[in-house]
């Protein structure tokens, strides 16, 4: 998470100098990759946020007036520990699925399956919908 918040996660074309991936989002195959797209604009990510206990809707993700990094910083500063843990768990799962898709070619899993797997990996006691 600290890599994202410090703006050190490779995005856009910077990532493609060191790895063999296309600059198009490998989750939705519709837009150029960026941190904002991967974590809040991609349809796959939006679905994961929506099925989470946070229930964040597509409209919220599309109309976010600030960048993903600024949004996460704001939520973490004002959120409780359980909310912050859930946000970190979801971000980690999005990055995990993206890497599995990019480097191993796996199919993008159902968002509920992703959320359950993420919660299990983080030893979370979050109640799923």
Notes on the structure:
This protein is mainly alpha-helical and 129 residues long. It has one domain. The protein is 55% helix and 0% strand. The protein contains seven helices and no strands. It has helices at 2-5, 35-41, 43-51, 58-62, 68-78, 81-104, 111-121. It is globular and about 35 Å long. The two termini are 25 Å apart. The mean pLDDT is 78.
**Strand share of the residues?**
under 5%
Mean pLDDT over the residues: 78
The coarse silhouette is: globular
Low-confidence parts? none
Sheet with the most strands? none
Put simply, the count of helices is: 7
Question: What attributes does this structure have?
Answer:
mainly alpha, 7 helices
Brief overview:
With 129 residues, the chain is an all-alpha fold.
Write the layout of secondary structure elements.
Layout: H1 2-5, H2 35-41, H3 43-51, H4 58-62, H5 68-78, H6 81-104, H7 111-121
